[in-house]
């Protein structure tokens, strides 16, 4: 515990895996306030397993107060930021000495944990009661969801429609081919270079038309398209000039927002040129937390540690037994010793990092 009379205040906007880890790490070194529209954080790479196994979500959805005991949670969204305050949508002004922005992507998830768990239960019932399922989107979310359903419910007819020329376009062509090969081997129909117009359908209609004129018959569908970045709220603030053309915050090597001395950013909201995955958000969080601890203790700016950009490594889970891993020079599919994302999806490891038991709620 810092013994100074006037403790520095660190405000964190966004309580995903990056923001949550900064809050947990700094809670005994500063007066920490976490502003998040939800009462919990969710391990993002566990979402799709939770849809086919709702009990998995019990471990993957963590109420902020379970790991963040020595700070304050404000359940709200940020609407403005000044040199010394964050203003919430309700008009509350939260003063800061240092600010960390970790707003990632916008999710339309419920405010409280029980409602989120209920959503996963509803997804499970939807999958279980359907004989045929349409997955729209061939990025990591669509591929992982199709793989989870195909692995757990091999008797169900799964169709994946993607509007691009190949799956997992953020990875290399070899990874795309291997993902396609795996899905096809599990009897998933993959339709590329086409999309589905959901507006023209009426409720209860089991027929879906693709832009290529193909008809897909399915009992239900899941929309797995990209989510918008959580940066639109900054466009009318003093940080508007720090956003790049994609809406990401430009950061320096210390993950400090360019042009700002007291504001840092972590995770998908940053313009660090690496694949946007939760693992990198956690790495950002640890660098920022270390730099803030040093600054709070009165250390000099030039002593801050720089963030070493992650290599092009990515893992995509393919059901419970397989995973696709792309490293800088190779692509591997199958059981990957020591890195099995698929079995536990690193949920136990993430819970331990947050000071929680691997098992339990």
What does this protein structure show overall?
With 361 residues, this protein is of the alpha/beta class. The protein has a domain at 9-37 and 76-107 and 227-310: FAD/NAD(P)-binding domain, CATH 3.50.50. It is 27% helix and 21% strand. The strands form six sheets. Strands 5-2-1-9-16 form a five-stranded parallel beta sheet, with helices on one face. It has a four-stranded parallel beta sheet with strand order 12-11-10-15. Strands 6-7-8 form a three-stranded antiparallel beta sheet, with no helix packed on it. Residues 337-342 have low confidence and may be disordered.
Chain-averaged pLDDT: 91
What is the first-to-last residue Cα distance?
28 Å
Task: Encode the helix/strand succession as letters.
Answer: EHEEHHEHEEEEEHEHEHEEEEEHEEEHH
Alpha plus pi helix count: 10
- Give the CATH topology of the domain at 9-37 and 76-107 and 227-310: FAD/NAD(P)-binding domain
Strand content: 15-25%
Shape: elongated
Helix-and-strand structural type: alpha/beta
Q: What's the arrangement of strands in the largest beta sheet?
A: 5-2-1-9-16
Largest sheet: 5 strands, parallel
Low-confidence stretches: 337-342
Helix percent band:
25-40%
CATH class of the domain at 9-37 and 76-107 and 227-310 equals Alpha Beta
Radius of gyration, rounded?
A: 21 Å
CATH architectural category of the domain at 9-37 and 76-107 and 227-310: 3-Layer(bba) Sandwich
Count of distinct strands? 19
CATH superfamily of the domain at 9-37 and 76-107 and 227-310: FAD/NAD(P)-binding domain
């Amino acid at each position: 515990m810092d013994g100074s009379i006037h403790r520095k205040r660190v405000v964190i906007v966004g309580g995903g895996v990056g923001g949550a880890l900064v809050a947990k790490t700094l809670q005994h070194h500063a007066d920490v306030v976490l502003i998040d529209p939800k009462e919990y954080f969710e391990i993002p790479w566990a979402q799709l397993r939770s849809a086919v196994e709702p009990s998995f979500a019990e471990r993957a959805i963590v109420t902020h107060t379970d790991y963040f005991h020595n700070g304050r949670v404000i359940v709200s969204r940020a609407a403005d930021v000044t040199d010394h305050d964050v203003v919430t949508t309700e008009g509350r002004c939260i003063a800061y000495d240092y600010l960390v922005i970790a707003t990632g992507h916008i999710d339309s998830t419920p405010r409280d944990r029980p409602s989120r768990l209920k959503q996963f239960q509803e997804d499970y019932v939807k999958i279980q009661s359907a004989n045929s399922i349409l997955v729209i989107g061939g990025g990591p979310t669509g591929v992982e969801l199709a793989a989870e359903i195909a692995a757990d419910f091999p008797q169900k007819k799964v169709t994946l429609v993607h509007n691009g020329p190949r799956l997992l376009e953020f990875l290399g062509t070899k990874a795309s081919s291997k993902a396609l090969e795996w899905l096809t081997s599990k009897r998933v129909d993959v339709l590329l270079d086409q999309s589905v117009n959901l507006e023209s359908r009426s409720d209860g209609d089991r027929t879906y038309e693709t832009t290529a004129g193909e008809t897909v018959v399915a009992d239900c569908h899941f929309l797995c398209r990209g989510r918008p970045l959580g940066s639109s709220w900054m466009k009318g603030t003093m940080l508007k000039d720090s956003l790049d053309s994609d809406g990401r915050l430009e950061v320096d090597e210390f993950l400090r927002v360019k042009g700002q001395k007291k504001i840092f950013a972590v995770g998908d909201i940053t313009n660090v040129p690496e694949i946007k995955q939760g693992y990198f958000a956690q790495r950002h969080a640890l660098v920022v937390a270390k730099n803030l601890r040093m600054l709070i203790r009165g250390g000099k700016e030039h002593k801050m540690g720089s963030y070493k950009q992650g290599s092009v490594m990515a893992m995509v889970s393919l059901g419970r037994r397989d995973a696709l891993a792309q490293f800088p020079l190779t692509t591997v599919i199958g059981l990957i010793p020591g890195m099995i994302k698929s079995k536990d999806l690193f949920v136990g490891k993430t819970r331990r990092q947050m000071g929680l038991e691997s098992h339990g709620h």
